[in-house]
Amino acid sequence: MPCAANERLQASSVCLAAIAKSEGLRLRAYWDHTGWAIGYGHHGPDITSATVWSEAQADAALKDADAVTAGDAVKQLVDVPLTQGEFDALLDFVFNEGINALKGSTLLALLNGGNYHAAGEQLLRWVYVGNEEEAGLRARREQELAWWRGVDAAPPSISTPAAAPIADTGARMLTNIVNHPKTSATGFLIGLVSVLNVFAHQGIGLGKIGSGSVVAFLTALATVALGCLARDPGASNPPPPASGQH
Questions:
Q1: CB environment 69-105: b (16+ within 10 A), e (fewer)
Q2: Could you give the residue numbers annotated as active site?
Q3: Which fold does the domain 4-148 belong to in CATH?
Q4: Among 226, 215, 119, which residue's Cα sits nearest to residue 168?
Q5: pLDDT in tens, 194-242
Q6: CA torsion, points 26, 31, 35, 36, in degrees to nearest 10?
Q7: Residue 110 · residue 122 · CB < 8 Å
Q8: Rounded Cα gap, residues 82 and 96, in angstroms
Q9: Distance between CA atoms of 204 and 164, rounded to whole angstroms?
Q10: Following DSSP, what letter does each residue of the chain receive, concatenated?
Q11: pTM of the model
Q12: HSE, side-chain direction, 13 A CA sphere, residue 205
């Protein structure tokens, strides 16, 4: 389920400038692999072979249309809260590689599991055209990874993430863990570490979360623990006595 805390995010000026540099500006329509395009790779039914734009039109299409579309796709796919740098990295990735590349990726699976570090490292796998590494893609992925790690990233648009939506996300993650038919007590503990990692990543402690969200989180925590223990009776019941013992 999309994380409500990410709704506040939008492409930073740093991200938009990097996309513009990577894509290149063309003020006369050109044909690419999906049809007529113009500006920084903008497509639309109104773009024909005769279309000519000003730089201001190209900038507006990037900021108000294409970057918004890519950002909305990221928000729909990501279930955990993102920093501004992580959001910019994923937005640029989607702008370059397409939404389907992110949708079916190991990167997304790791990220939604709370493993931010490993997810970021996955960016560097997307540097090939066929079997050959491409220098431009390598540079773009390294820039995205730098943003992911907080290097050269734009400052957050809001200094402190909304804590309550993040707690709600944690509660949903725990509920998803217990609803999985194969989750054991050990699996629960691994899942709990992932949820707490989300909190730590955002600098969120329970003291910053509203009382209603704390109750929801702790209720989900207790429900998950009981459900997992019920599937793993050996974790809560002592072994039977050996033969001959009473």
A1: ebbbbbbebbbbbbbbbbbbbbbbbbbbeebeebeeb
A2: 23
A3: Lysozyme (1.10.530)
A4: 215
A5: 666 665 665 555 554 455 555 555 666 666 566 555 555 554 455 555 5
A6: 50
A7: yes
A8: 19
A9: 10
A10: ---GGGGG----HHHHHHHHHHH--EEEEEEETTEEEEETTEE-TT--TT-B--HHHHHHHIIIIIHHHHHHHHHHH--S---HHHHHHHHHHHHHH-HHHHHT-HHHHHHHTT-HHHHHHGGGG--EETTEE-HHHHHHHHHHHHHHTTSSPPPPSSSS--HHHHHHHHHHHHHHHHHSTT--HHHHHHHHHHHHHHHHHTT--GGGS-HHHHHHHHHHHHHHHHHHHHH-GGGTSPPPPPTT--
A11: 0.68
A12: 1
Spatial distance between the Cα atoms of 37 and 47, rounded to a whole number of angstroms: 6
Asked if residue 73 lies in contact with residue 94, where contact means CB atoms within 8 angstroms, the answer is yes
CB 10 within 8 A of CB 71: yes
- pLDDT tens, position by position, 37-74: 999 999 999 999 999 999 999 999 999 999 999 999 99
Are 90 and 78 in contact by the 8 Å Cβ rule? The answer is: yes
Pairing of strands 128-129, 132-133: antiparallel
By mean pLDDT, which of 95-104, 131-140, 141-150, 164-173 is the weakest?
164-173
Of 138, 118, 116, 119, residue with least CA distance to 127 = 138
- How confident is the model at residue 160, as a pLDDT? 41
Q: Residue 190 has which token pair? A: 């691994």
The rounded distance, in Å, linking the Cα atoms of 111 and 195 is 11
d(C-alpha 185, C-alpha 228), whole Å = 5
pLDDT tens-digit series, residues 216-226:
556 666 665 66
